[in-house]
Each structure stands twice: as structure tokens, then as C-alpha cells.
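This entry is listed below:
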Amino acid sequence: MQKHSPVFLSFLFSLCFFVQRSNAQKLCDHPQNIHCTAVGSNYARVVWKKVNGAMAYNIRGRITGSSDWITMMVMGKDTVAKISNLKPNSEYELQMLTYCNSDLSDSSDWSEKIILNTDFPCQTPNKLFVDSISSVSAVLHWTGPLNSVKFTIRYKSKNQNSKWIAVSVKSGYVNSVRISDLTPGTEYIWTISCNCLGNVLNESLFAEPPVKFTTPIH
């Protein structure tokens, strides 16, 4: 009977263990029920069903047709993540996998791809002007983007210590508002931003520079 050296037997044992380990099932499953609960022009909020025993998750996404993946790590206790810095008006595909141990050496397969479409960016309102100025009131006008759902107007006197006063217009179809309780003979400035999704994550910048107007004394 042929005898084998200890080195050969050790190699044979390692090879058998490798084959057995490679043919074994993954230690954990990839996340299920992956979907988006909110999508803006440059972000998406992704949720999924928790995987038992998960130590961490890896999320990857890319513009459909691109070979460049963006990735992010998420703790195993989490079931929601916000992906930022996406391109507006683009189709993305996302996948997730689960890491099954603390040193992240074992993982599940990648999940099936899900598709999301980012929105158009929320453009800053423009063409600001003021008319119907009285000693205590004025009408502010603007032109806003077609996908706006709310406008935020802020105005103040040009006095050094004055504070901004905010007015919310909860309709994307309105393009003017009257402000009252102004002080006669005072110079004011005003500006406006808009919101295209109804939350702070998709607000435009405020229009620059602010528009000036002065109320008459009488």
C-alpha cells in the first residue's frame, strides 16, 4: 500500500474542505421586498425586509446601461438607507447582498435588480417682481417650475436687525401672494424657493438676489 506524506494528506484535506465549503449553501439570504419609499431628483430612500443573522448589507446602484456601480455599506440592524448624489431624470438599477459574519468574508448572492427613476430637479423660481404696493401691503409675483407643489416666500425690512418672515403657499399653480402688516416708509427685500415633492429633500435654492421694494409713507 502506497504511503502519502503528511504534507500531501494535509493538502488533500484542505482541497476536500474547499470543495465541500464551495458547494455549501450561502450562510444567509439576500434581502427581500426591496423597494423605494421616496425618490427625488438626486436621492432615493430604499427599504427592505430584515435578514436574520445579517451583520451588514451592501447596496449597489448604477445608471441603466452603465458599467460604473456606486456602493454603500449599511449596518445589519438597519432596514432603510438613503442613497444620495444621484443624477436627475435618470433610470437606475439597484441590488443588495447580505454579509453573514463580522469580518464580512461570507455573503449572500446579489438580489434581483430593482429599477428606480429620479425626478427632474426642482428649479428656483424666477421673474420676481412687486406691484400694488401700499403703505402696509404689497403683491409679490414670480414664475415657478411646472413640477412645483409648494412655494416658500421670505421677506424682511432692510434694517440691520430685522429677521426673515416666512410665508408658505401650498400650491404649485399659484404665482402671486399679497403680504400685509408692512411698515409705511420702509424698504423691504424678498425672495422665494419652491418644493417639488412636498418634503425638504427636494427644495430649490432661494432666488438671488432678493428683490427690493419700498412702501410709501401714506
User: Anything to note?
Assistant: Residues 7-24 have pLDDT under 50 and may be disordered.
